Write the structure tokens for this entry.
Amino acid sequence: MTQSGQATVVWADEFRGPAGSPPDPRVWRHETGAGGWGDEQLQRYTASTRNAHLTGDGRLAITAHREPDGDVTSARLTTLGRLTVRRGRVEARIRQPRGAGTWSAFWMLGDDLEDVGWPACGEIDVMEHVGAEPRTVHGTVHGPGYAGIGGGAGGSYDAGVPLADGFRTYAVTWADDAIVWDLDGVEYHRVTPDDVPGPWPFRRGFHLLLNLAVGGRWPGNDASGLVLPATMLVDRVRVLDVGAGGDVALRP
């Protein structure tokens, strides 16, 4: 463990390793396939290092490609069954992809996903970014009765400059009865059980996800003019114990 200000870093991935190698398989696994992923997304997720690889200088590149046959490929990484987070500060330093039609995300789902399904498991979107809104980050929770595009309890923040211009730190500080979002330490949204019209499934273990989608039903994010490849570049992912009501429970 290391100290970051008054917080304790209890787990981090800084994506160190040879250029072209996959992300740490002890932590990350691939979710693969196509079919639109619930909202008409265009990409097919693969386990290829062409779509997710270490850069060799301490970063993870998740890249969407248009293949010679016209297929769009990308990557979706999850820690389900390998790493569990409960409470604390969850953050990632990311440079966003550029271009309308990209849809990148750093998010969490309840570990009981395969037992109770979505949205009963709960979803915490630490960061969503769509290329049609280049300066804006979105943070949202989804649960029973408040789920789907436009249906979650969400907020957004205009950073004033395109988020693809450089690395920014996207985070939530998560306690049993409150979730607070910030960009580079600037708070822009918070949610408590009183703010949602249904159950609050955020008092148990969650797993992490990183992905880059293309297209989908996000309003206005038309991918018809998108030029690929596009890359979501992740410098680090960290979980910190900030003393917000208890521990951060992790399990590899």
